[in-house]
Design brief:
Layout (H helix, E strand, L loop, with lengths): L6 H17 E5 L16 E9 L2 E4 L1 H4 L12 E8 L13 E13 L19 E6 L20 E8 L6 E13 L4 E4 L13 E4 L4 E9 L6 E5 L16 H18 L8 H7 L16 H12 L7 H12 L13 H6 L10 H13 L11 H12 L5 H24 L20 E8 L6 E8 L8 E10 L4 H16 L8 E4 L20 H4 L2 E4 L35 H18 L3 E4 L2 E2 L2 E2 L4 H5 L5 E4 L9 H10 L4 E5 L10 H14 L5 H13 L11 E5 L17
Parallel strand pairs: 13-16, 16-17, 18-21
Antiparallel strand pairs: 1-2, 1-4, 2-3, 3-6, 4-5, 5-6, 7-8, 7-10, 8-9, 9-12, 10-11, 11-12, 13-14, 14-15, 19-20, 22-23
Helix pairs in contact: 3-5, 5-9, 6-8, 8-9, 8-10
C-alpha cells in the first residue's frame, strides 16, 4: 500500500484484494508451446489478464502479441495460469486456492486493424489495445465485477498484475489515483503514486470506492511511476455480429451478470462474494443518493441478473430511448453506445433534478419488463422482473409504488398494441414493407470542402427516425483531412454510429451528405469492420447537404394523385404561395409517386454515349416516377450541372456513377443493367436495399453485377430533414 491513503481506502483495498487477486491471471506461452516445446513449463511472463465471465479472460492486445510480432493474433493459443477456486480468506495462497494452467485461444483483438499492422517493439499499440481470450477447458475460477458506468470517476483505485519482485511470479496490487482521460475517453491516466512493473500490463484497475473494475493496465511511463489504462467500456466496441446473432459483448456481459447473480443466491458455502464485499465497503462521503436513494448491492446484483435473463434489446437506440424516458433528457452521447440492458443502468447513476437513483433504475426496469426484445423471452422472465421491481419498491415511498404500477399498465397496453400492429411480421421486426428501409435511426456522414484547399471537414451523427424528425446526435467530427485519409479517420466514428443504430434484423442506413461534386466519393468501398466494404454490409445513399433547397419536412402536404400542389388545381382565391413552397410541394409530390412506382429511367447527362446538359423545362416535363440517371464524373460538366438541375426540379431519387478507370469503356452496359433493375424493382422504396444486394453480388464475383460498380443512389427522403449548420473550420 502507498502511504497517504485514507482509512476508508485502506479498508476497501483490504476487502477487495482477495477477490481481485483470485480472478487475475498470468499470461504466457501455452504449455509446451512457443518458448518451451515439448515441456509443461510455462515460460516467461508476457503480461496479466483477468476473468470477466466464466471462461473469458480480458487482457491487452500487446500482451498476446508477445513472442511473435508476425503471428496472427486472433486464433493464437496462449497459456493462462490462474487460481482454481476462491480462497475462504486471505489471498490466492490461502488454503483452498489451487494454482492451475490452461490453454486459451485469442477470440478477437481491438482495434481490428492490429491484425493488419502493429507498432514496432517498445512502441504503444493503438487504443483500445484489448484482447479477449476464451479458455479451452471447463475450469472453476473467480470473476471480477465490471463497472456499468460509461465514464470513470476520478477517485482512488488499485491496480493488479503479475510481478516477480521476489524471484517468482505472483499477483500483487498497488494503489494510486485516476488523473484524467486520454484517447477521447478510451484510456484513463494513472497517477505516479507507485511503479507499474513489467508483467502488470493487462491487469485490472479497480475503483476502490465502488468495488468495480474500471480499466485494464496498458502502459507505464518511461520516466517514473504512473501510466495508462484502457477503460473497460471499450469492450462495447467488440465487432458487431451478423444479423440475427447475439454479439460477443452481449454474450459475455450476460454470462458476467448471471455468474454474480448465481453466486449471490447460492448458499452452498460461506465464501465472500463481490456483492457481500460491496455491502461492506466504507460509505462514500457526501453521497446525495446514500441510504434508500440507491439500490443496495444485493438489489443491484439481482437486477443485473434478472435483466441478463431477458433477451437482449433490439438495438442500442432502444436502450437509449428507455434511458431518455427515465432521465427526461438525452443520455450522454460521447461514450461507446449502450448495447445491453445493463448498460442502460450505467446511464442512470446520479440522475438530474435530484431524482433518486434507485427510483430511476426501478422506472427503467419497469420499462424493460414491457419492452420489445429481439426474440420472445423465456416464459415468465419479464413477469419475474416486474415482480421484483414491485417488491423492491415496497421499501421506498408510496407515490413511487403507485407510479410504477401505472407505468407498467401503460407499457403492457402499448406492447399489446405493437403486437397487434405487427401481426404477420417476425417478432421484433421493423415496420416496413418487404425490401424497404427500416424506419429507425440512420447514420449521417457529412463532408465539406475546406475552402479552396484539397482538404475536408467532416461530421458523423445519428439521425433519428420519423418519430423525432430532424433530431441529430453528434458522434464525432474533424477538420482538414485529405480524401486519402478520410477512410482511416472515419473508421472509429462510423463504427460507433453503426453500433448505436444497427438492429438485430437490419443494418442501419448510411446517408452521405456532400456537395454534388463529391458524389464520386467511394464511401461504399470503405472498410470499417469485418473486412467487408460498407456498401456490402448496409444500404448507402447520397444526399445533398442541408441548407438551401433542402428536402421538405414531413409536415408538407404532398397532395393527392395527379395534383400538383400550388399548381393549376390550387384554389384561385387562396393566398399566394412562395416559390420555395411551390418547389417543396412539387418535390414532395414527386417523392410520394416515385416511391410507389412503376419506375422508368431517363438518361440525364448522356444521350447515345455523348454528354448533354438537360434543360429545366425538359426535366420538369418528365413523369413523376422518373429516375434521372447519370453515368459521367460528378465533379465535371455537364454532370455537375445536371445534378443541381435534377434537384431543383424536385427529383428526390436519382442515380449517379463513378466512371470506370478506362475512359474508353462504353456506358451502355451500365444503362442497360440499370434499366432492367429499375423495371424489376417496380418502386423506388426498395432501391437502397437492392443496390446493396448488387454490391454484394459484385463483391462475391458475380459477373452479371459488375455493371453496377461505382453506382450511387441519391435519396432525398422528406421525412428525414438534414441539419442546416456546418461545423466550424479550424483556426485561421
Amino acid at each position: 500500500m502507498t502511504d497517504g491513503r485514507t482509512t476508508g481506502t485502506a479498508r476497501a483495498f483490504e476487502l477487495l484484494e482477495p477477490l481481485v487477486q483470485a480472478a487475475t491471471v498470468r499470461v504466457h506461452a501455452p504449455p509446451g508451446g512457443y518458448d518451451t516445446p515439448g515441456s509443461h513449463r510455462t515460460g516467461p511472463t508476457w503480461g496479466s489478464g483477468f476473468f470477466i465471465a466464466p471462461g473469458w479472460v480480458l487482457t491487452c492486445a500487446h500482451v498476446v502479441g508477445e513472442g511473435g510480432a508476425a503471428v496472427r493474433l486472433t486464433g493464437r493459443e496462449v497459456g493462462i495460469t490462474f487460481h482454481s477456486g476462491r480462497p475462504r480468506s486471505g489471498g490466492p495462497g490461502a488454503p483452498g486456492a489451487v494454482t492451475g494452467t490452461v490453454t486459451g485461444r485469442v477470440e478477437c483483438v481491438l482495434p481490428e486493424r492490429l491484425e493488419e499492422r502493429r507498432p514496432g517493439r517498445h512502441a504503444l499499440w493503438d487504443l483500445p489495445d484489448l484482447a479477449l481470450i476464451r479458455v479451452l477447458a471447463p475450469v472453476s475460477h473467480a470473476c471480477v465485477w465490471l463497472t456499468d458506468r460509461s465514464r470513470p470517476r476520478f477517485d482512488e483505485v488499485a491496480y493488479f498484475g503479475c510481478t516477480e519482485d521476489l524471484g517468482t511470479p505472483e499477483i500483487t496490487g498497488r494503489t494510486t489515483r485516476l488523473r484524467g482521460t486520454a484517447g477521447n475517453g478510451a484510456a484513463i491516466r494513472l497517477a505516479d503514486d507507485d511503479e507499474i512493473d513489467p508483467g502488470m500490463s493487462g491487469g485490472p484497475v479497480v475503483d476502490l470506492a465502488r468495488g468495480e473494475v474500471v480499466g485494464v493496465v496498458k502502459a507505464r511511463r518511461h520516466t517514473g511511476g504512473g501510466g495508462l489504462a484502457v477503460s473497460v467500456v471499450q469492450l462495447r466496441t467488440l465487432p458487431m455480429p451478423a444479423r440475427g446473432q447475439v454479439g460477443l459483448y452481449r454474450r459475455i456481459m450476460q454470462a458476467h451478470d448471471l455468474h454474480h447473480y448465481d453466486q449471490h443466491l447460492s448458499d452452498l458455502d460461506n465464501r465472500r462474494t463481490w456483492t457481500d464485499v460491496h455491502g461492506e465497503l466504507p460509505p462514500q462521503e457526501r453521497d446525495p443518493y446514500g441510504g434508500r436513494g440507491r439500490l443496495t448491492p444485493g438489489e443491484r446484483t439481482t437486477l443485473c441478473g434478472l435483466l441478463a435473463e431477458l433477451p437482449p434489446p433490439s438495438s442500442s437506440e432502444a436502450v437509449r430511448a428507455l434511458v431518455e424516458a427515465v432521465r427526461g433528457e438525452e443520455p450522454d452521447p460521447q461514450p461507446p453506445a449502450p448495447l445491453s440492458w445493463r448498460d442502460g443502468l450505467g446511464l442512470l447513476h446520479d440522475p438530474p433534478g435530484g431524482t433518486g437513483e434507485a427510483a430511476a433504475m426501478l422506472r427503467y426496469a419497469t420499462d424493460v419488463s414491457v419492452a420489445e426484445y429481439r426474440e420472445p423471452p423465456t416464459p415468465g422472465a419479464d413477469e419475474e422482473l416486474w415482480d421484483w421491481v414491485r417488491a423492491t419498491a415496497e421499501r421506498l415511498w408510496r407515490p413511487l409504488r403507485r407510479e410504477l404500477g401505472e407505468r407498467h399498465e401503460r407499457g403492457l397496453a402499448e406492447r399489446e398494441r405493437r403486437r397487434r400492429a405487427s401481426a404477420g411480421r417476425a417478432a421484433g421486426g421493423p415496420a416496413r414493407r418487404a425490401g424497404g428501409l427500416p424506419p429507425g435511426a440512420s447514420v449521417l456522414l457529412e463532408v465539406w470542402a475546406h475552402g479552396w484547399e484539397h482538404l475536408y471537414d467532416w461530421r458523423v451523427s445519428v439521425l433519428a427516425g420519423p418519430a423525432h424528425p430532424g433530431r441529430l446526435t453528434p458522434v464525432d467530427s474533424g477538420v482538414r483531412a485529405t480524401v486519402a485519409a478520410l477512410p482511416e479517420r472515419l473508421r472509429a466514428p462510423l463504427a460507433e454510429a453503426f453500433r448505436r443504430c444497427d438492429t438485430h434484423v437490419a443494418a442501419a442506413l448510411l446517408e452521405v451528405a456532400v456537395a454534388p461534386e463529391l458524389f464520386g466519393l467511394a464511401v461504399e468501398d470503405w472498410v470499417v469492420a469485418g473486412g467487408v466494404p460498407l456498401g456490402v454490409q448496409r444500404p448507402v445513399v447520397l444526399r445533398h447537404p442541408g441548407g438551401r433547397g433542402a428536402a421538405p419536412g414531413p409536415g408538407i402536404d404532398q397532395g393527392g394523385p395527379g395534383i400538383d400542389p400550388g399548381g393549376p388545381d390550387a384554389p384561385a382565391g387562396g393566398p399566394q404561395a412562395h416559390p420555395a413552397d411551390h418547389e417543396a410541394g412539387r418535390a414532395a409530390a414527386r417523392w410520394a409517386r416515385v416511391q410507389a412506382g412503376p419506375l422508368q429511367d431517363e438518361r440525364a447527362d448522356c444521350a447515345g454515349g455523348r454528354p448533354r446538359a438537360p434543360s429545366a423545362e425538359w426535366l420538369s416535363g418528365l413523369p413523376d416516377t422518373t429516375v434521372p440517371v447519370h453515368c459521367r464524373a460528378a465533379d465535371q460538366e455537364p454532370t455537375l450541372g445536371s445534378l443541381h438541375a435534377v434537384r431543383d426540379a424536385g427529383y428526390g431519387v436519382a442515380v449517379t456513377r463513378r466512371p470506370p478507370p478506362d475512359p474508353g469503356v462504353s456506358c451502355a452496359p451500365f444503362h442497360r443493367g440499370l434499366r432492367e433493375e429499375l423495371a424489376d424493382a417496380g418502386r423506388a422504396e426498395v432501391l437502397p436495399v437492392r443496390l446493396q444486394t448488387l454490391r454484394g453480388r459484385a463483391y462475391g464475383a458475380d459477373p452479371d453485377a459488375y455493371w453496377a460498380a461505382g453506382a450511387g443512389l441519391v435519396w432525398e427522403d422528406p421525412a428525414r430533414p438534414l441539419p442546416d449548420v456546418e461545423p466550424l473550420h479550424g483556426d485561421l
